[in-house]
Amino acid sequence: MIEQILSEKTIEAIKTLYGGTVDKINFEKTNPDFTGDFTLVVFNFLKLSKKKPEITAEEIGNYLKSNVTEVADYNVIKGFLNIVISDAYWLTYLSSINGKSIVNTQLPADAPVVMVEYSSPNTNKPLHLGHVRNNLLGYSVAEILKAAGNKVIKTNIVNDRGIHICKSMIAWQRWGNGETPESSGMKGDHLVGKYYVEFDKQYKLELKKLTDSGLTAEEAEKQAPLMKATQEMLRKWETADKEVRDLWTLMNGWVYKGFDQTYQMLGVDFDKVYYESNTYILGKDLIEDGLSKGVLKRRDDYSVYIDLTADGLDEKTLLRADGTSLYMTQDLGTAAQRFKESNFSKLIFTVGNEQDYHFKVLLLILNKLGYSWAKGLFHLSYGMVELPEGKMKSREGTVVDADDLMQEMINTAAATTKELGKVEHLSEEEANELYKIIGMGALKYFMLKVDPKKKMLFNPAESIDFNGNTAPFIMFNYVRVRAILRKAKELNGFETSQPLDLNIALLPKEKELIIKLYHFTPTLLQAANEFSPALIANYVYDLSKEYSQYYHDTQMLKEEHQATMNFRLHLSNTIGMAIKSSMQLLGINVPERM
Fold it and tell me: How many other β-carbons are positioned within 10 Å of the β-carbon of residue 345?
């Protein structure tokens, strides 16, 4: 990397010029308003040079130009030394990556293990808009971490037990009349979700009757027959009642099939799936360990808690008086089990910011219990998603369903693409595949280009604009590259395997594009460190935007100088590969034609 060469030579320059030593030198990208590729801020060296910033920068710049072959020139703006790297270096760099993937898929044998958890659905309803952001974010982070040199394990924990699951079961028992996905023609998760909504409707009617009879709202909630029946069903589930467990297995099976179809459409997958019905009993060993260490305490009623008031929080109960566990208990146990299974260096929980407090407490407790691996746990907290019509709801039957949203995206992509005349040369099958690629790509890109920590407003129509910071714009530039390469092969037999001529005079925009390619790896590493697909999304948009301008302003196939034309085709090919690789890190496919 050129930065390492510059850093080593700058350390050498400071020692030679001023007799001093420095441990580390950091170069920044030069401000676009100035000439240069890398910038060194010299203010930290003034104590050694005992000279003004401008003079210090001038002396270091002159030393680098005289002693570093790759440095073609430099300029000084106050205390900022702007370094210009030679065209020869950039051409050599392009040649080294020409026709190759810029993502390294070879993992070292000692690659650190990183576990990424995402999705975490409940089996009482279909996946919704919030799940879409969760799945896309978790999957993309996993792909980015893998590309950055980690062995990644993608996990999903399914919330398949509890009172909310029993609500759907009770409602189906009472009002389902034996309805199945096959008899209704509904996806299994949609069918079960239908009865979750029905439960809520009937429960509200019961509450109204009870309050109309003179009971308070609190009394009505306690006496409602429907809720009592649901609580009784949960007790039977916990004692492994065969009839309840058989119904639970049947209805969950419907949901899993439905989830699988949604995951397939979203383009996400998992290496391991955990089920809360298996993990809810975990954590009690950690409780006993914490009691023996004096970290946890037992109340007079035999419940167990941890006092976090000194950390600005509160007392957190970890075991009820009757010995049953809570969500926190099982999360403690699940984390320990996962470390035992995989020996991970990091465990990333992809969960919305409404659970910030829960994960703050979880990580704090594990650290207080003395588990060194807990330092590798991280809550990837993300903001909620809203549509222009307003925030989604989950129990009134007005949830923004993931399947409906995806189909709407594909339909919108079809209408927009047809209107722009981009499918006239395609068969019906090819056109339908294109609509799916564009629609799903638009959805994913729009979700992922926003910093995960921010709340976002998702506008389906805006996401399928072929201009601006959208997936269709990026895809169009990739398709443009593929089209020009096909035409070049047809006209003059150009092959991407041909060697690259290194004696080309670069246009400013060509150098800018090569430097943009060079910055892919630092961007990837930053995205991995920050768990932020938004960095990749904005990188590939900037690359596509710069290439679009270059394409419009530069002769390609009409260039008379053969070596120059071949260079531009090679550059286009490498940019196309970078676009495709970047989009794949976001879980997005790109079309070859449109």
Answer: 16
d(CA 446, CA 440): 10
pLDDT of 3 reads 92
Note the pLDDT of residue 202.
Answer: 97
Instruction: Return the pLDDT at 398.
Output: 56
The pTM of the whole model exceeds 0.90 = yes
Report d(CA 12, CA 52) in Å as an integer: 20
Q: Which CATH fold would you assign to the domain 413-585?
A: Isoleucyl-tRNA Synthetase; Domain 1 (1.10.730)
Same topology between domain 2-85 and domain 413-585? no
* pLDDT less than 70: residues of the chain: 389-399
Burial of 546-571, coded b for 16+ CB within 10 Å and e otherwise, reads bbbebbeeeeeeeeeeeebbbbbbbb
d(CA 456, CA 21): 48
- Helix (H), strand (E), coil (C) string for 299-323: CCCCCEEEECHHHCCCEEEEECCCC
| Alpha-helical segments (H) within 493-556 | 508-518, 520-530, 533-553
Q: Domain spans of the chain?
A: 2-85, 162-277, 413-585
**Which CA distances in Å does 116 have to 144, 160, 342, 399, 407?**
11, 20, 12, 26, 27
Q: Return all residues near 204 (Cβ < 8 A) that are at least 6 apart.
A: none
Q: What pLDDT is stored for residue 391 in this prediction?
A: 46
Per the CATH hierarchy, to which homologous superfamily does domain 2-85 belong? Arginyl tRNA synthetase N-terminal domain (3.30.1360.70)
Q: pLDDT tens across 73-115, in order? A: 999 999 999 999 999 999 999 999 887 777 877 888 899 999 9
83: which strand partners? Answer: 38, 74
99-135 b/e (C-beta count within 10 Å ≥ 16 → b): eeebbeeeeeeeebbbbbbbbbbbbbbbbbbbbbbbb
